[in-house]
Fold L-lactate dehydrogenase.
Amino acid sequence: MRAARTSKVAIIGAGSVGATMAFATLMRGTARHVALYDINTAKVRAEALDLVHGVQFMPPAQIEGSDDIEVCRGADVVVVTAGAKQKPGQTRLDLAESTVGLMRTIIPQVTAVAPDAVYVMVTNPVDVVTRAALAISGLPPNQLFGSGTVLDTSRLRYRLAEESGLAAQNVHAYVVGEHGDSEIPLWSSAMIGAVPLLDWSTTHAPLLDAASREAIATEVVEAAYTVIAGKGATNYAVALAGVSIIEAVLRDENRVLSVSTLIEDYVGISDVCLSVPTVVGADGAGEKLVPPMTPAELTGLRASADRIREVLRGLGF
C-alpha cells in the first residue's frame, strides 16, 4: 500500500490566481499547510495575513507568505501561477517569451527546496510553459505537468449541462489539445448520462445539434477573453480547477483529468505538451487515455500540437 502524501501545498505567485487558489485550497480543507511565495514582499505578506485572519472559519491549517523561496521547502505539491498578466485582446501564446524567461529563474530555485514535489504549472501559455519547465527542471513528465484544459473541460460541461437541463456532474466530455484557440472538444466520445452526445439531439430535438455544438465550442474558446475583458483576469474557476488537480494528487484519487503532459507517440503526436485525458494520482500524471476520435478531431489535435511546437521552436525548445 502506497503511503499517503502529506499536505503541504506551495503556490508560486500571489496574484489573483495564486491568492484565489490558496483561498480555495484552505476552504476545501485540501491541505493542512499552504505556503505563498512571491517576489512582491508587501503583496504576499498581505495576502497571507488576510487569509490567516479567517483561520477560525475554515478547516485547521497553517498559512505562510514570504518572498523567500525557503517557504516552499518540503512541499508535496507546488503550483506555479506566476507569470505575465494576459491583457484584453492578447492570446495566451503572446505571453510565451516573457513567461518562459521568468521560469528560467523560478524553476531552479523551487526545485532546489522541493525536489520531490509534484509540480502543476498553471501559468499561461500553459502548454509552452510546461514543456519549457520540464526542460529547465529535468524532472520526469509525471512529476511536472500543466493544468491544461481542465478549466476548458469544465466550461464545456457547464454549457452542455445548461443546454440539456442536467447536472454538470452527469456530463462527460473533454476538451483536448492546446489550452487556447486551437483546442478541440471531443464530441464523438462525449456522453450525457449514458447517452452519447451525438445521439442526444435525435431524442431531444433540436438541442445539441451541429450548429449548437459549434456555438458552444466557440463560447468555450472565447470564455477567458470574455472574462478578462469584463474584470481584467480569470481567477475563481481556474483556482478551483487547480485545486481539483491538487486533490487528485494528495488524495491519490486516480482521476481522469485533461491535464497538459509531455506526449510521446500518442495518436502520432510526440515531443510536445498538450492536454489529453490523463489519470492523475499520488505519482502525478499517469496513463494517458485514448478516447475514440473522428478523423476531423484527430486532424484538429495534430494541428493544435503543431501550433504549440512552432512557438516552442521560436523559444529554443
User: Anything to note?
Assistant: Confidence is low (pLDDT under 50) at residues 1-5. Residues 210-231 form the longest helix (22 residues). Residues 118 and 143 are 5 Å apart (CA to CA). The first strand starts at residue 8 and ends at 12.
